[in-house]
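The material for today's practical consists of a large collection of protein records. An example says more than a description, so a record of this kind follows:
***
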Amino acid sequence: MKFRWQAIAPLLVWLVLFLVPTPGGLNPNQWHYFAVFAAVIAGLILESKPVGAVGLIGLTFAAVMGYVESDPAKSLRWALSGFSEPTVWLIVGAFVFSIGYRKSGLGNRIALLLVRLLGRRTLGLGYAVTLADTLLAPATPSNTARSGGTIFPIVSQIPRIYGSQPGPTAGRIGTYVMWTAFAATSITSSLFLSALAPNAAALVIAKKTVGIDVNWSQWLLGIFPLGLLLILLVPWLAYKICRPEVKESPETVAWAAGELQKMGPISRSEWIMLGLVILAMFLWITGSNPNISLPFFGSNFINPTLVVFVVICLLIVTGVIDFSDILAEKAAWEVFFYFTSLLTLASGLNDIGFIKWIAESFAKPLLGVEPQTAMVLLAALFFWIHYFFSSITSHAAAVLPVVLAVGSGIPGLDQRTLTLLCLYSLGLMGVISPFATGPAPMFFGSGYIGKGQFWRLGLIFGLIYFAGLLLVVLPWLKFLG
């Protein structure tokens, strides 16, 4: 067997922490549990094993050792508790939506229609790519599947039409198109609760850590002003910074028209998929509003996860997807084990009192700081520390409980606002580096964006996105109360 240091490193993290004397205020059981949690995070960051396996191994070890529940039966129930977490099934179910987009061809058709409509000018092409991602985002919880699986294959063909190849000619149009597509998916990943799987996972962590919860429409309302502003601004800003040599792109319109002609008229499956996505969004928005009556349902309320199951059943009944497609969706089931294990382990930190100790210990230096300033400092820490993470989920699991716990220990700090600032950061922070989010390596590896250029653009747009959180979202949340 080939030796891989990434496989040994998490064990070393666990062993070092296990041997370190227990800090004051904690008992050995709490500290040893944290050692397991830290080893899991290290394994996720280093990708020592498939992410689902890393989480499952850590969860099983913690359950066997009885760190959270000493009674074996109770320890087993604790280990299995995450498998009944509705948000985990919401994530898995939403992955099935992306199967429908892919099998029906609706995702490709939406992207090509927008390119044909707006692609005559290069700037319009940037807006077409951004709008395509925006339309797909509410029902595609993986930005890797959305941006990498649907948008990237389309936009990667466009530069070659104009003789723009990776390397010296990348700046003709390729750099602009590729960077705009990547920057756009970072926006849409934060705009919708269902557009990025870690959004829902982080929301569960926030609920279990500080008791803050929001539904789909509340999430959208809080980020909408910034999301809309960035959707309008980013294609133009990227156009000014990247300065593509090709200003008009009529050939792109002709190419998109040709691809649409090959697809033929919109199919039955596409119509059904479109209708079911609209139904899902309608129920996500209205289903949690007790003042809106929902016909054909037993009550005014329908859980967002149940909405996903309803749509999945309709996708199967109408033949848009087969049940075998769901069983074969490896990414969905990997996410299932990944998030189930991670959320259970993260909640265990709170169950054993470790989060309370963090809050009491690390909040002390900020006690004399004005609450608003402390909130900005904590939000900045949460956003920019992502330079050290290659996974948004592992970032959320490792950093979010600490930041929220510290915030809860500062008198006068609005805990809900801090929580939302952190949650809205998750998608936006994906722009800052070539490994910060799922599709980043694809765009980085395309060759159209130089290595130094990618880091420079990531810093520029990261600063813009973070400034938007402070200058737009923060006052907007205060206004909403």
